[in-house]
Task: inverse folding
DNA sequence: TTGTATGCGTTATCAG
DNA sequence: CTGATAACGCATACAA
């Protein structure tokens, strides 16, 4: 039974409720012995303070609302959530987790329930909304935001740099006809990766050919890979850089069906370095993203904001992990 | 600004706060026109009710606490959480998500914060605790509980049946020397799978050999696979059934290093059917677990409990997915 | 150091 | 149908 209140304890202890309140929160102005006495009494009575009552009066809930837009990408998102939860917990916060199911309408609804619950801060992952949040009266941090504009606090990975590294790697291996399979449902990071792709090619004075770029009309990663392959193949690529690892996996499946062997006939680079990808055969060459770290940083930014400090937006560096899907032409 | 209260609205509307309260909750005893008038007014004033104040008086928070014990298994857990969140959200609940980092001490702490927050129900995933919760004064549902005893409401997958199906499949392919690599950090499901393994062998009148059973001392799935392989190999198995897919992946990596080709030299079956496993080459034969469904059912059980209905514990059926890692001997 | 009184934003129980 | 008033569980300014 957690039904006892400070009133009950006060009655039993023969003191006033405020004394109990003070004893329970290590208030300075209270006798050392009464404090100890009341604390043990409270424990023996199985007292558990009501966070909701506390929140009502202190106007602080010690909660963070996380909204994941993307059901389609739990593999990536989970690590971010994990990172957030860890630093949140250590700082005394609990996190609400909600799915917007990739529906802006629903995302708005989620945000509103978070406001109703008076969360102290909100963190969105891969949200396509942005300006909609400019009037929110609490801190909001956007991880991998997918709408251009700098209304907010953001943390992202260096998509541009990652893409450049990926394509440079392919170029260094002698490839010239390099394709890109992108994701239209991720406007910002896709654009960044596409730009990185183009940049690398231009720096190497390799022409950027439209027929080597595919932006399949789907939000399913695997499908995207298969569709992208089919589309680009006629342009005779010797290598392909994909928006993410799962896209790569779909693409590799397509290659298998067409008897295209990797990396002999075609080199492939992904993005994310999701857990299982090193167990593929051939093991995937990809760009590693510090996902847990992103979550930690996002939450740290929230903590800063809550402490009236203004954090810098940040773009985390990525790392090229060379494995077996890329080879000299 | 969500700073306005029913008091402010009352003042503007020229009515009493209680009238506002009633208007906002579609109370029967209120005039149709005043209701409408107040509702639109509230909206125009950007009023957002305080869930914490509501909770304080109604003694209901519309929150569910989820505790994941296992950092080691996010791939599996995420789907369950997803299932929970979906039905929770549709029923008007928000979920708290917390990590116990596989530490019972910490799990207890998490449960206590959930109690402080007055969550309406708690769902644990793969918890090793159980009797510790028998005195909780709110519904608790344990998904894939890892402590024997029937103190609580539980939902699990049919580990026993799944293991039998897996091993029967191998037996049908002519295998006799079949190994098992298990997980000591999952007492219940591991025991069930081990029992299923033994049962299938016994039914086929194949002797159960201790040297074909390995329970590596690690909680890292991949490592476990490698260790298990090394241990069992001396007993010359022709097939191995693993506790889960990630164990299988570690094991397959070990085989590769030892030049053991799958399924020619060794057949392998996993458990879980995690997303990426169909993209391995050879693609993994495994037991599919309805994870999202588990989450949905767990949350539905919570809803039932909250509605004073007593739900039946349930063990979800699994399905053998035959792919490429198993072959006739 | 301790007790008293008040208020946080709502809902609910009464009267009117 | 509507308006006072109490209550939810706690923290805090103020008084003692």
Result:
């Amino acid at each position: 039974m957690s039904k006892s209140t400070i009133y009950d304890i006060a009655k039993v202890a023969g003191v006033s409720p405020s004394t109990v309140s003070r004893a329970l929160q290590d208030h300075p102005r209270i006798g050392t012995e009464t404090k100890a006495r009341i604390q043990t009494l409270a424990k023996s009575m199985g007292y558990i303070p009501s966070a909701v009552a506390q929140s009502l009066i202190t106007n602080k809930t010690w909660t963070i609302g996380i909204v994941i837009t993307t059901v389609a990408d739990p593999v990536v998102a989970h690590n971010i959530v994990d990172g957030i939860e860890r630093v949140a917990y250590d700082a005394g916060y609990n996190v609400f987790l909600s799915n917007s199911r990739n529906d802006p309408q629903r995302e708005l609804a989620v945000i509103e329930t978070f406001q109703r619950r008076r969360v102290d801060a909100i963190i969105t992952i891969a949200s396509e909304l942005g300006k909609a949040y400019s009037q929110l009266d609490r801190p909001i941090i956007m991880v991998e935001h997918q709408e251009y504009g700098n209304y907010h606090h953001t943390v992202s990975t260096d998509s541009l740099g990652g893409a450049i590294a990926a394509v440079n790697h392919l170029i260094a291996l002698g490839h010239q006809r390099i394709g890109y399979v992108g994701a239209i449902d991720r406007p910002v990071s896709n654009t960044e990766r596409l730009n990185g792709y183009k940049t690398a090619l231009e720096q190497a004075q390799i022409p950027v050919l439209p027929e080597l770029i595919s932006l399949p009309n789907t939000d399913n990663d695997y499908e995207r890979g298969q569709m992208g392959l089919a589309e680009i193949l006629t342009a005779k690529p010797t290598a392909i850089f994909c928006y993410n690892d799962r896209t790569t996996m779909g693409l590799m499946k397509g290659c298998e069906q067409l008897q295209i062997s990797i990396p002999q006939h075609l080199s492939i680079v992904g993005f994310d370095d999701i857990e299982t990808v090193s167990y593929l055969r051939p093991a995937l060459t990809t760009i590693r993203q510090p996902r847990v770290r992103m979550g930690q940083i996002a939450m740290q930014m929230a903590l800063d904001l809550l402490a009236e400090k203004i954090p810098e937006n940040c773009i985390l560096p990525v790392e090229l992990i060379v494995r077996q899907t890329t080879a000299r032409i």
About this structure: Residues 6-49 of chain B form one domain. The mean pLDDT of chain B is 94. Chain B touches chain A through 47 residues (CB under 8 Å). Residues 5-7, 17-18, 21-22, 25, 49-50, 52-58 of chain B lie near DNA strand C (CB under 10 Å from a C1').
